Amino acid sequence: MQDSGAGGPQAARDRSDTGGSSGKVLPCLGAGKRANSHELNALGVEYQQSARYDFAEACYRAALRKKPDFVVALFNTGTLRLAIGDDKGAIAIFSEVLSVQPTYASAHYNMGTSYYRLGQERQAAASFKAAVDIDPNYVHAHANLATVLHLQGDLDGAKKHHQESIRIDPGFADGWMNLGNVLKALGQVEAAIQSYTTATTLRPDYAMAHYNLGVAHMSSGNHAAAIESYREATRHNSEFYNAYYNMGLSLQAVGQLEGAIKALRKATAKEGGFALSAYNNLGTVLDQLARLPEAIQAYKTALKLMKDGDATESSVIANLYSALQAVCDWEGTAELDARLMRLLETAMRAEGDAGSALHPFHSVTYPFSASLALRIARFHARSLAPVDSWRPLYSLHALLPSTLGASAKTLRVAYMLDSLSNGTISQYVPSLLASHDRRLVETYVYMMQDSSPVHSRLIHSLQEASTAVRNLSGVLRSGSPRGAAEAASNIISSDAIHVLMDLSENGGGARHTVLALAPAPIHISVAFRSTQVCASVARRGCTEGAKRECARLHVYA
Questions:
Q1: Helix, strand or coil for residue 300?
Q2: Which domain holds residue 435?
Q3: Which of 21, 114, 330, 445 is most buried when burial is the number of CB atoms within 10 A of its CB?
Q4: Residue of higher predicted confidence among 289 and 524
Protein backbone atom coordinates (compact mmCIF):
# COMPACT_ATOMS: atom_id res chain seq x y z
CA MET A 1 0.00 0.00 0.00
CA GLN A 2 2.11 2.83 -1.29
CA ASP A 3 1.32 5.99 -3.19
CA SER A 4 3.45 8.30 -5.29
CA GLY A 5 4.01 11.92 -4.38
CA ALA A 6 2.16 14.94 -5.69
CA GLY A 7 1.90 18.63 -4.86
CA GLY A 8 4.06 21.76 -4.93
CA PRO A 9 6.99 22.86 -2.77
CA GLN A 10 6.32 24.09 0.75
CA ALA A 11 8.60 25.26 3.58
CA ALA A 12 10.52 22.46 5.32
CA ARG A 13 13.57 22.06 7.50
CA ASP A 14 16.75 21.01 5.69
CA ARG A 15 17.33 17.28 6.41
CA SER A 16 19.99 16.93 3.75
CA ASP A 17 23.14 17.80 5.64
CA THR A 18 24.29 14.14 5.71
CA GLY A 19 24.17 11.43 3.09
CA GLY A 20 23.85 7.91 4.45
CA SER A 21 25.07 6.21 7.59
CA SER A 22 28.72 7.21 7.02
CA GLY A 23 27.86 10.92 7.27
CA LYS A 24 29.37 11.50 3.84
CA VAL A 25 27.35 13.64 1.42
CA LEU A 26 26.70 11.55 -1.69
CA PRO A 27 26.31 13.23 -5.07
CA CYS A 28 23.28 12.70 -7.30
CA LEU A 29 24.79 10.40 -9.91
CA GLY A 30 24.05 11.53 -13.47
CA ALA A 31 22.98 15.06 -12.55
CA GLY A 32 24.63 18.05 -14.16
CA LYS A 33 26.37 20.65 -12.01
CA ARG A 34 23.60 23.15 -12.75
CA ALA A 35 20.68 20.72 -12.23
CA ASN A 36 17.88 22.41 -10.30
CA SER A 37 15.90 20.88 -7.42
CA HIS A 38 13.09 19.61 -9.68
CA GLU A 39 15.59 17.88 -12.01
CA LEU A 40 17.36 16.29 -9.04
CA ASN A 41 14.03 15.12 -7.59
CA ALA A 42 12.95 13.67 -10.96
CA LEU A 43 16.22 11.78 -11.26
CA GLY A 44 15.70 10.42 -7.74
CA VAL A 45 12.25 9.13 -8.75
CA GLU A 46 13.81 7.31 -11.74
CA TYR A 47 16.38 5.66 -9.49
CA GLN A 48 13.70 4.69 -6.97
CA GLN A 49 11.52 3.15 -9.67
CA SER A 50 14.47 0.96 -10.69
CA ALA A 51 15.08 0.02 -7.02
CA ARG A 52 18.42 1.84 -6.87
CA TYR A 53 17.58 3.30 -3.49
CA ASP A 54 20.97 4.69 -2.44
CA PHE A 55 21.19 6.72 -5.65
CA ALA A 56 17.56 7.84 -5.26
CA GLU A 57 18.09 9.10 -1.72
CA ALA A 58 21.25 10.96 -2.76
CA CYS A 59 19.26 12.80 -5.44
CA TYR A 60 16.38 13.66 -3.06
CA ARG A 61 18.84 15.06 -0.54
CA ALA A 62 20.65 16.99 -3.26
CA ALA A 63 17.27 18.49 -4.24
CA LEU A 64 16.67 19.51 -0.61
CA ARG A 65 20.12 21.10 -0.42
CA LYS A 66 19.19 23.17 -3.46
CA LYS A 67 15.73 24.00 -2.11
CA PRO A 68 15.23 23.29 1.63
CA ASP A 69 11.45 23.98 1.39
CA PHE A 70 10.93 21.38 -1.39
CA VAL A 71 8.26 19.29 0.39
CA VAL A 72 7.78 16.89 -2.54
CA ALA A 73 11.44 15.81 -2.35
CA LEU A 74 11.03 15.32 1.40
CA PHE A 75 7.84 13.32 0.77
CA ASN A 76 9.62 11.14 -1.77
CA THR A 77 12.35 10.47 0.77
CA GLY A 78 9.55 9.09 2.96
CA THR A 79 8.25 6.84 0.17
CA LEU A 80 11.80 5.55 -0.26
CA ARG A 81 11.98 4.62 3.46
CA LEU A 82 8.63 2.89 2.98
CA ALA A 83 9.95 0.98 -0.04
CA ILE A 84 12.96 -0.40 1.83
CA GLY A 85 10.84 -1.41 4.86
CA ASP A 86 11.94 1.34 7.24
CA ASP A 87 8.41 2.12 8.45
CA LYS A 88 9.46 4.01 11.56
CA GLY A 89 11.75 6.21 9.46
CA ALA A 90 8.95 6.74 6.94
CA ILE A 91 6.51 7.81 9.67
CA ALA A 92 9.04 10.33 10.99
CA ILE A 93 9.50 11.87 7.54
CA PHE A 94 5.77 11.94 6.68
CA SER A 95 5.10 13.54 10.08
CA GLU A 96 7.57 16.28 9.13
CA VAL A 97 5.84 16.73 5.77
CA LEU A 98 2.45 17.06 7.50
CA SER A 99 3.80 19.52 10.05
CA VAL A 100 4.27 22.03 7.24
CA GLN A 101 1.52 20.84 4.86
CA PRO A 102 -1.29 19.23 6.90
CA THR A 103 -3.51 18.76 3.84
CA TYR A 104 -1.04 16.53 2.00
CA ALA A 105 -3.42 13.56 1.51
CA SER A 106 -0.76 11.20 0.12
CA ALA A 107 1.42 11.77 3.18
CA HIS A 108 -1.48 10.76 5.45
CA TYR A 109 -2.10 7.73 3.23
CA ASN A 110 1.51 6.53 3.21
CA MET A 111 1.88 7.11 6.92
CA GLY A 112 -1.22 4.95 7.37
CA THR A 113 0.48 2.25 5.32
CA SER A 114 3.51 2.28 7.62
CA TYR A 115 1.33 2.16 10.73
CA TYR A 116 -0.57 -0.77 9.21
CA ARG A 117 2.64 -2.68 8.50
CA LEU A 118 3.77 -2.07 12.08
CA GLY A 119 0.50 -3.55 13.36
CA GLN A 120 -0.75 -0.22 14.73
CA GLU A 121 -4.28 -0.47 13.34
CA ARG A 122 -5.80 2.44 15.27
CA GLN A 123 -3.18 4.90 13.99
CA ALA A 124 -3.45 3.43 10.48
CA ALA A 125 -7.22 3.95 10.43
CA ALA A 126 -6.80 7.55 11.62
CA SER A 127 -4.28 8.27 8.87
CA PHE A 128 -6.39 6.73 6.09
CA LYS A 129 -9.44 8.61 7.37
CA ALA A 130 -7.50 11.87 7.30
CA ALA A 131 -6.61 11.14 3.67
CA VAL A 132 -10.24 10.60 2.60
CA ASP A 133 -11.41 13.63 4.58
CA ILE A 134 -8.95 15.74 2.59
CA ASP A 135 -9.62 13.99 -0.72
CA PRO A 136 -13.05 12.25 -0.75
CA ASN A 137 -12.21 10.68 -4.14
CA TYR A 138 -9.03 8.99 -2.92
CA VAL A 139 -9.85 5.42 -4.03
CA HIS A 140 -6.99 3.56 -2.36
CA ALA A 141 -7.37 5.47 0.90
CA HIS A 142 -11.03 4.38 1.06
CA ALA A 143 -9.97 0.81 0.26
CA ASN A 144 -7.25 0.68 2.90
CA LEU A 145 -9.43 2.32 5.52
CA ALA A 146 -12.03 -0.36 4.79
CA THR A 147 -9.40 -3.09 5.18
CA VAL A 148 -8.37 -1.82 8.62
CA LEU A 149 -11.99 -1.39 9.74
CA HIS A 150 -12.65 -4.98 8.67
CA LEU A 151 -9.74 -6.16 10.83
CA GLN A 152 -11.12 -4.15 13.75
CA GLY A 153 -14.53 -5.80 13.37
CA ASP A 154 -16.35 -2.75 12.02
CA LEU A 155 -17.95 -4.55 9.08
CA ASP A 156 -20.53 -1.85 8.35
CA GLY A 157 -17.79 0.79 8.19
CA ALA A 158 -15.66 -1.46 5.98
CA LYS A 159 -18.60 -2.08 3.65
CA LYS A 160 -19.26 1.68 3.39
CA HIS A 161 -15.70 2.55 2.36
CA HIS A 162 -15.31 -0.37 -0.07
CA GLN A 163 -18.55 0.73 -1.71
CA GLU A 164 -17.20 4.28 -1.89
CA SER A 165 -13.99 3.08 -3.57
CA ILE A 166 -15.89 1.29 -6.35
CA ARG A 167 -18.34 4.18 -6.72
CA ILE A 168 -15.38 6.41 -7.50
CA ASP A 169 -13.71 3.79 -9.70
CA PRO A 170 -16.15 1.10 -10.93
CA GLY A 171 -13.24 -0.70 -12.60
CA PHE A 172 -11.36 -1.18 -9.30
CA ALA A 173 -11.21 -4.98 -9.16
CA ASP A 174 -9.52 -5.08 -5.74
CA GLY A 175 -12.37 -3.01 -4.34
CA TRP A 176 -14.99 -5.41 -5.66
CA MET A 177 -13.14 -8.44 -4.27
CA ASN A 178 -12.61 -6.92 -0.84
CA LEU A 179 -16.23 -5.77 -0.73
CA GLY A 180 -17.12 -9.41 -1.35
CA ASN A 181 -15.04 -10.42 1.68
CA VAL A 182 -16.95 -8.00 3.89
CA LEU A 183 -20.34 -9.04 2.51
CA LYS A 184 -19.51 -12.67 3.15
CA ALA A 185 -18.47 -11.85 6.72
CA LEU A 186 -21.84 -10.11 7.13
CA GLY A 187 -23.60 -13.28 6.00
CA GLN A 188 -24.71 -11.71 2.69
CA VAL A 189 -23.37 -14.58 0.60
CA GLU A 190 -25.35 -13.93 -2.59
CA ALA A 191 -24.24 -10.30 -2.64
CA ALA A 192 -20.66 -11.45 -2.00
CA ILE A 193 -20.89 -13.83 -4.98
CA GLN A 194 -22.00 -10.94 -7.21
CA SER A 195 -19.13 -8.80 -5.96
CA TYR A 196 -16.51 -11.52 -6.55
CA THR A 197 -17.98 -12.20 -9.99
CA THR A 198 -17.59 -8.53 -10.91
CA ALA A 199 -13.96 -8.64 -9.78
CA THR A 200 -13.24 -11.68 -11.98
CA THR A 201 -15.02 -10.04 -14.92
CA LEU A 202 -12.85 -6.95 -14.58
CA ARG A 203 -9.71 -9.05 -14.13
CA PRO A 204 -10.14 -12.55 -15.60
CA ASP A 205 -6.68 -13.57 -14.31
CA TYR A 206 -7.44 -12.50 -10.73
CA ALA A 207 -6.72 -15.83 -9.01
CA MET A 208 -7.58 -14.65 -5.49
CA ALA A 209 -10.98 -13.35 -6.62
CA HIS A 210 -11.73 -16.68 -8.31
CA TYR A 211 -10.70 -18.46 -5.11
CA ASN A 212 -12.90 -16.28 -2.89
CA LEU A 213 -15.77 -16.77 -5.31
CA GLY A 214 -15.27 -20.52 -4.90
CA VAL A 215 -15.33 -20.20 -1.10
CA ALA A 216 -18.61 -18.26 -1.30
CA HIS A 217 -20.18 -20.84 -3.62
CA MET A 218 -18.93 -23.61 -1.32
CA SER A 219 -20.47 -21.96 1.76
CA SER A 220 -23.83 -21.77 -0.02
CA GLY A 221 -23.67 -25.46 -0.94
CA ASN A 222 -23.08 -24.92 -4.66
CA HIS A 223 -20.09 -27.22 -5.01
CA ALA A 224 -20.28 -27.41 -8.81
CA ALA A 225 -19.80 -23.64 -9.11
CA ALA A 226 -17.13 -23.73 -6.40
CA ILE A 227 -15.15 -26.36 -8.30
CA GLU A 228 -15.19 -24.23 -11.46
CA SER A 229 -13.99 -21.18 -9.53
CA TYR A 230 -11.16 -23.12 -7.88
CA ARG A 231 -10.11 -24.46 -11.28
CA GLU A 232 -9.94 -20.90 -12.62
CA ALA A 233 -7.87 -19.87 -9.59
CA THR A 234 -5.35 -22.67 -10.15
CA ARG A 235 -5.29 -22.02 -13.90
CA HIS A 236 -4.00 -18.51 -13.20
CA ASN A 237 -1.82 -19.56 -10.25
CA SER A 238 -0.53 -23.12 -10.48
CA GLU A 239 0.80 -22.96 -6.88
CA PHE A 240 -2.49 -21.88 -5.28
CA TYR A 241 -2.55 -24.77 -2.79
CA ASN A 242 -5.54 -23.49 -0.83
CA ALA A 243 -7.57 -23.63 -4.04
CA TYR A 244 -6.46 -27.21 -4.72
CA TYR A 245 -7.40 -28.16 -1.16
CA ASN A 246 -10.88 -26.63 -1.30
CA MET A 247 -11.40 -28.04 -4.78
CA GLY A 248 -10.67 -31.47 -3.34
CA LEU A 249 -13.26 -30.99 -0.61
CA SER A 250 -15.92 -29.88 -3.09
CA LEU A 251 -15.13 -32.74 -5.47
CA GLN A 252 -15.45 -35.13 -2.55
CA ALA A 253 -18.79 -33.58 -1.60
CA VAL A 254 -20.24 -34.22 -5.08
CA GLY A 255 -18.87 -37.74 -5.27
CA GLN A 256 -16.05 -37.09 -7.77
CA LEU A 257 -13.57 -38.96 -5.63
CA GLU A 258 -10.80 -39.54 -8.19
CA GLY A 259 -10.75 -35.83 -8.96
CA ALA A 260 -10.71 -35.09 -5.24
CA ILE A 261 -7.64 -37.30 -4.83
CA LYS A 262 -5.76 -35.45 -7.59
CA ALA A 263 -6.60 -32.04 -6.13
CA LEU A 264 -5.70 -33.02 -2.57
CA ARG A 265 -2.40 -34.57 -3.70
CA LYS A 266 -1.50 -31.21 -5.26
CA ALA A 267 -2.48 -29.47 -2.02
CA THR A 268 -0.03 -31.64 -0.06
CA ALA A 269 2.86 -29.90 -1.85
CA LYS A 270 2.46 -26.89 0.44
CA GLU A 271 4.71 -27.13 3.45
CA GLY A 272 3.62 -26.77 7.06
CA GLY A 273 0.32 -27.42 8.79
CA PHE A 274 -1.63 -27.00 5.58
CA ALA A 275 -0.16 -30.24 4.21
CA LEU A 276 -1.29 -32.01 7.38
CA SER A 277 -4.96 -31.18 6.67
CA ALA A 278 -4.51 -32.08 3.01
CA TYR A 279 -3.12 -35.52 3.86
CA ASN A 280 -5.85 -36.11 6.44
CA ASN A 281 -8.62 -35.29 3.96
CA LEU A 282 -6.84 -37.26 1.23
CA GLY A 283 -7.02 -40.22 3.58
CA THR A 284 -10.77 -39.82 4.03
CA VAL A 285 -11.33 -39.89 0.25
CA LEU A 286 -9.14 -42.98 -0.18
CA ASP A 287 -11.04 -44.53 2.73
CA GLN A 288 -14.33 -43.91 0.91
CA LEU A 289 -12.95 -45.76 -2.11
CA ALA A 290 -11.90 -48.66 0.15
CA ARG A 291 -8.25 -48.01 -0.77
CA LEU A 292 -7.34 -48.57 2.85
CA PRO A 293 -3.54 -49.10 2.58
CA GLU A 294 -3.22 -45.75 0.77
CA ALA A 295 -5.58 -44.10 3.25
CA ILE A 296 -3.53 -45.41 6.17
CA GLN A 297 -0.33 -44.07 4.58
CA ALA A 298 -1.96 -40.64 4.13
CA TYR A 299 -3.08 -40.55 7.77
CA LYS A 300 0.37 -41.65 8.96
CA THR A 301 1.99 -38.88 6.89
CA ALA A 302 -0.39 -36.38 8.51
CA LEU A 303 0.67 -37.62 11.95
CA LYS A 304 4.35 -37.20 11.06
CA LEU A 305 3.72 -33.57 10.06
CA MET A 306 1.83 -32.85 13.27
CA LYS A 307 3.23 -30.62 15.99
CA ASP A 308 2.47 -30.92 19.70
CA GLY A 309 -0.93 -29.52 20.55
CA ASP A 310 -2.18 -29.46 16.96
CA ALA A 311 -5.96 -29.03 16.94
CA THR A 312 -6.45 -31.69 14.26
CA GLU A 313 -4.59 -34.43 16.15
CA SER A 314 -7.73 -36.11 17.47
CA SER A 315 -9.30 -36.15 14.00
CA VAL A 316 -6.25 -37.74 12.36
CA ILE A 317 -5.89 -40.32 15.12
CA ALA A 318 -9.59 -41.21 14.88
CA ASN A 319 -9.38 -41.64 11.10
CA LEU A 320 -6.19 -43.72 11.27
CA TYR A 321 -7.50 -45.81 14.14
CA SER A 322 -10.68 -46.65 12.25
CA ALA A 323 -8.78 -47.54 9.07
CA LEU A 324 -6.38 -49.80 10.99
CA GLN A 325 -9.34 -51.53 12.61
CA ALA A 326 -10.90 -52.11 9.20
CA VAL A 327 -7.79 -53.98 8.00
CA CYS A 328 -7.41 -55.82 11.34
CA ASP A 329 -4.06 -54.18 12.14
CA TRP A 330 -4.25 -54.57 15.90
CA GLU A 331 -0.54 -53.88 16.38
CA GLY A 332 -1.04 -50.56 14.64
CA THR A 333 -3.96 -49.59 16.87
CA ALA A 334 -1.95 -50.62 19.93
CA GLU A 335 0.80 -48.17 18.89
CA LEU A 336 -1.78 -45.39 18.75
CA ASP A 337 -3.20 -46.19 22.17
CA ALA A 338 -0.32 -44.54 24.06
CA ARG A 339 -0.50 -41.40 21.92
CA LEU A 340 -4.26 -41.31 22.31
CA MET A 341 -4.01 -41.56 26.10
CA ARG A 342 -1.49 -38.70 26.19
CA LEU A 343 -3.86 -36.62 24.09
CA LEU A 344 -6.78 -37.29 26.40
CA GLU A 345 -4.77 -36.61 29.56
CA THR A 346 -3.57 -33.29 28.14
CA ALA A 347 -7.09 -32.28 27.13
CA MET A 348 -8.55 -33.19 30.52
CA ARG A 349 -5.88 -31.16 32.30
CA ALA A 350 -6.55 -28.12 30.09
CA GLU A 351 -9.20 -25.59 30.97
CA GLY A 352 -12.10 -24.72 28.65
CA ASP A 353 -13.60 -26.88 25.91
CA ALA A 354 -13.02 -30.59 25.99
CA GLY A 355 -13.38 -30.58 22.24
CA SER A 356 -14.15 -33.49 19.97
CA ALA A 357 -11.15 -35.44 21.31
CA LEU A 358 -13.08 -36.13 24.51
CA HIS A 359 -16.56 -36.99 23.32
CA PRO A 360 -17.98 -40.00 25.22
CA PHE A 361 -19.05 -41.76 22.03
CA HIS A 362 -15.40 -42.18 21.05
CA SER A 363 -15.46 -44.91 23.67
CA VAL A 364 -17.23 -47.00 21.03
CA THR A 365 -14.21 -46.74 18.71
CA TYR A 366 -11.33 -46.72 21.20
CA PRO A 367 -10.54 -49.48 23.70
CA PHE A 368 -11.27 -47.41 26.80
CA SER A 369 -12.05 -49.02 30.10
CA ALA A 370 -15.49 -48.38 31.53
CA SER A 371 -13.99 -46.14 34.25
CA LEU A 372 -12.11 -44.02 31.72
CA ALA A 373 -15.18 -43.75 29.50
CA LEU A 374 -17.16 -42.51 32.48
CA ARG A 375 -14.41 -40.02 33.37
CA ILE A 376 -14.44 -38.66 29.80
CA ALA A 377 -18.23 -38.37 29.84
CA ARG A 378 -18.21 -36.46 33.12
CA PHE A 379 -15.43 -34.13 31.95
CA HIS A 380 -17.21 -33.47 28.64
CA ALA A 381 -20.47 -32.66 30.39
CA ARG A 382 -18.71 -30.34 32.85
CA SER A 383 -16.60 -28.50 30.27
CA LEU A 384 -19.49 -27.99 27.85
CA ALA A 385 -22.12 -27.13 30.44
CA PRO A 386 -24.22 -24.12 29.30
CA VAL A 387 -22.91 -20.77 30.50
CA ASP A 388 -24.87 -17.57 31.09
CA SER A 389 -24.47 -16.35 27.51
CA TRP A 390 -26.05 -19.55 26.20
CA ARG A 391 -29.38 -19.42 28.00
CA PRO A 392 -32.24 -19.72 27.39
CA LEU A 393 -31.47 -22.20 24.59
CA TYR A 394 -34.55 -24.35 24.91
CA SER A 395 -38.16 -23.84 25.83
CA LEU A 396 -39.94 -25.10 28.92
CA HIS A 397 -40.78 -28.44 27.29
CA ALA A 398 -37.07 -29.35 27.29
CA LEU A 399 -36.79 -28.72 31.01
CA LEU A 400 -39.99 -30.51 31.96
CA PRO A 401 -40.27 -33.59 29.75
CA SER A 402 -42.89 -35.04 32.09
CA THR A 403 -45.36 -32.46 30.80
CA LEU A 404 -44.99 -33.48 27.16
CA GLY A 405 -47.99 -35.75 27.21
CA ALA A 406 -50.26 -32.98 28.36
CA SER A 407 -48.90 -30.20 26.17
CA ALA A 408 -48.15 -31.90 22.86
CA LYS A 409 -50.68 -33.41 20.45
CA THR A 410 -47.93 -35.20 18.52
CA LEU A 411 -44.49 -36.52 19.34
CA ARG A 412 -41.72 -34.65 17.53
CA VAL A 413 -38.77 -36.85 16.56
CA ALA A 414 -35.71 -35.46 14.76
CA TYR A 415 -32.81 -37.19 13.01
CA MET A 416 -29.36 -35.59 12.83
CA LEU A 417 -27.32 -36.63 9.78
CA ASP A 418 -23.79 -35.67 8.73
CA SER A 419 -23.23 -37.74 5.58
CA LEU A 420 -25.62 -38.89 2.90
CA SER A 421 -22.79 -40.98 1.41
CA ASN A 422 -23.24 -43.47 4.23
CA GLY A 423 -25.08 -46.38 2.64
CA THR A 424 -26.65 -47.40 5.94
CA ILE A 425 -28.23 -43.97 6.34
CA SER A 426 -29.34 -43.64 2.71
CA GLN A 427 -31.07 -47.03 2.82
CA TYR A 428 -32.43 -46.86 6.34
CA VAL A 429 -33.61 -43.34 7.14
CA PRO A 430 -36.22 -42.75 4.38
CA SER A 431 -37.99 -45.98 5.22
CA LEU A 432 -37.72 -45.18 8.93
CA LEU A 433 -39.35 -41.79 8.37
CA ALA A 434 -42.09 -43.31 6.25
CA SER A 435 -42.88 -45.84 8.97
CA HIS A 436 -44.06 -43.15 11.41
CA ASP A 437 -47.78 -42.49 11.73
CA ARG A 438 -48.02 -38.79 10.83
CA ARG A 439 -51.13 -38.43 12.94
CA LEU A 440 -49.04 -39.20 16.00
CA VAL A 441 -45.44 -38.35 15.07
CA GLU A 442 -43.88 -35.31 13.36
CA THR A 443 -40.41 -36.01 11.97
CA TYR A 444 -37.59 -33.57 11.27
CA VAL A 445 -34.19 -34.05 9.61
CA TYR A 446 -31.18 -31.83 10.42
CA MET A 447 -28.31 -31.91 7.90
CA MET A 448 -24.98 -31.13 9.56
CA GLN A 449 -23.07 -31.09 6.24
CA ASP A 450 -23.89 -29.84 2.75
CA SER A 451 -25.48 -32.31 0.37
CA SER A 452 -24.39 -32.63 -3.26
CA PRO A 453 -26.41 -32.85 -6.48
CA VAL A 454 -25.85 -36.62 -6.54
CA HIS A 455 -27.98 -36.85 -3.41
CA SER A 456 -30.93 -34.87 -4.81
CA ARG A 457 -33.15 -37.95 -5.07
CA LEU A 458 -32.38 -38.93 -1.48
CA ILE A 459 -33.05 -35.38 -0.25
CA HIS A 460 -36.38 -35.44 -2.09
CA SER A 461 -37.33 -38.72 -0.42
CA LEU A 462 -36.41 -37.31 2.99
CA GLN A 463 -38.56 -34.24 2.34
CA GLU A 464 -41.47 -36.37 1.19
CA ALA A 465 -41.33 -38.56 4.29
CA SER A 466 -40.74 -35.87 6.95
CA THR A 467 -42.29 -32.71 8.30
CA ALA A 468 -39.18 -30.65 7.47
CA VAL A 469 -35.55 -31.04 6.35
CA ARG A 470 -33.25 -28.29 7.65
CA ASN A 471 -29.67 -27.72 6.49
CA LEU A 472 -27.61 -26.53 9.48
CA SER A 473 -24.25 -26.65 7.68
CA GLY A 474 -24.22 -22.92 6.89
CA VAL A 475 -25.11 -22.04 10.49
CA LEU A 476 -22.31 -24.28 11.81
CA ARG A 477 -19.77 -22.50 9.58
CA SER A 478 -20.72 -19.01 10.79
CA GLY A 479 -19.01 -17.22 13.65
CA SER A 480 -17.19 -18.85 16.55
CA PRO A 481 -17.63 -22.60 17.22
CA ARG A 482 -19.66 -21.92 20.35
CA GLY A 483 -21.76 -19.25 18.69
CA ALA A 484 -22.45 -21.51 15.72
CA ALA A 485 -23.40 -24.39 18.01
CA GLU A 486 -25.68 -22.09 19.97
CA ALA A 487 -27.42 -20.95 16.78
CA ALA A 488 -27.90 -24.54 15.57
CA SER A 489 -29.17 -25.61 18.99
CA ASN A 490 -31.67 -22.75 18.99
CA ILE A 491 -33.03 -23.88 15.61
CA ILE A 492 -33.60 -27.38 16.94
CA SER A 493 -35.10 -26.03 20.15
CA SER A 494 -37.45 -23.73 18.22
CA ASP A 495 -38.90 -26.81 16.52
CA ALA A 496 -39.80 -28.12 20.01
CA ILE A 497 -38.20 -31.49 19.33
CA HIS A 498 -38.94 -34.18 21.93
CA VAL A 499 -36.53 -36.92 20.81
CA LEU A 500 -33.30 -36.15 18.92
CA MET A 501 -31.69 -39.13 17.17
CA ASP A 502 -28.01 -38.60 16.30
CA LEU A 503 -27.29 -40.76 13.25
CA SER A 504 -24.02 -39.02 12.39
CA GLU A 505 -21.31 -41.22 10.94
CA ASN A 506 -18.13 -39.41 11.99
CA GLY A 507 -16.68 -39.22 15.49
CA GLY A 508 -15.96 -35.51 15.60
CA GLY A 509 -17.52 -32.27 14.53
CA ALA A 510 -19.59 -29.39 15.87
CA ARG A 511 -22.55 -31.63 16.60
CA HIS A 512 -20.96 -32.64 19.92
CA THR A 513 -21.24 -29.08 21.18
CA VAL A 514 -24.77 -28.81 19.79
CA LEU A 515 -25.80 -31.97 21.64
CA ALA A 516 -24.12 -30.76 24.83
CA LEU A 517 -26.46 -27.76 24.80
CA ALA A 518 -29.40 -30.18 25.19
CA PRO A 519 -31.74 -28.78 22.49
CA ALA A 520 -34.13 -31.67 23.14
CA PRO A 521 -35.05 -33.48 26.36
CA ILE A 522 -34.21 -36.94 24.98
CA HIS A 523 -31.06 -37.60 22.96
CA ILE A 524 -30.10 -40.94 21.41
CA SER A 525 -26.91 -41.64 19.46
CA VAL A 526 -26.50 -44.59 17.09
CA ALA A 527 -22.95 -45.78 16.38
CA PHE A 528 -23.11 -46.46 12.63
CA ARG A 529 -19.34 -46.18 12.21
CA SER A 530 -18.60 -48.79 14.84
CA THR A 531 -21.28 -51.07 13.40
CA GLN A 532 -19.44 -50.89 10.08
CA VAL A 533 -16.08 -51.62 11.76
CA CYS A 534 -17.56 -54.60 13.54
CA ALA A 535 -18.97 -55.96 10.28
CA SER A 536 -15.70 -55.24 8.44
CA VAL A 537 -13.46 -57.16 10.81
CA ALA A 538 -15.91 -60.05 10.83
CA ARG A 539 -15.92 -60.22 7.02
CA ARG A 540 -12.11 -60.24 6.98
CA GLY A 541 -12.01 -63.25 9.28
CA CYS A 542 -10.33 -61.43 12.16
CA THR A 543 -12.05 -63.51 14.79
CA GLU A 544 -10.41 -62.03 17.88
CA GLY A 545 -10.67 -58.51 16.53
CA ALA A 546 -14.32 -58.98 15.65
CA LYS A 547 -15.06 -60.28 19.12
CA ARG A 548 -13.36 -57.29 20.71
CA GLU A 549 -15.02 -54.70 18.48
CA CYS A 550 -18.49 -56.18 18.62
CA ALA A 551 -18.32 -56.76 22.36
CA ARG A 552 -17.47 -53.10 22.93
CA LEU A 553 -20.21 -52.00 20.55
CA HIS A 554 -22.69 -54.17 22.46
CA VAL A 555 -21.69 -52.55 25.75
CA TYR A 556 -22.13 -48.98 24.51
CA ALA A 557 -25.22 -49.67 22.37
A1: helix
A2: 389-526
A3: 114
A4: 289
**Each residue of 137-176: b (16+ CB within 10 Å) or e?**
ebbbbbbbbbbbbbeeebbebbbebbbbbbeebeebbbbb
Give the DSSP H or E segment for 442.
Answer: strand 441-447
Reference 253, options 234, 275, 225, 233; nearest CA is 225
DSSP characters over 104-116: -HHHHHHHHHHHH
CATH of the domain at 502: 3.40.50.11380
Upstream peptide bond of 170 is cis (omega within 30 degrees of 0): no
The stretch 120-149 carries a mean pLDDT of: 97
Decide if 506 is inside a domain.
yes
Closest C-alpha among 70, 38, 68, 43 to residue 58: 43
Q: Distance between CA atoms of 230 and 246, rounded to whole angstroms? A: 7
The answer to whether position 353 is within a domain reads no
Q: What is the mean pLDDT of the chain?
A: 79
Distance of CA 171 to the CA centre of its chain: 28
Inside any domain, residue 297? no
* Whether the predicted pLDDT of 545 surpasses 80: no
> Does some domain include residue 370?
no
pLDDT at 89: 95
**How many Å is the maximal CA-CA distance in the chain?**
102
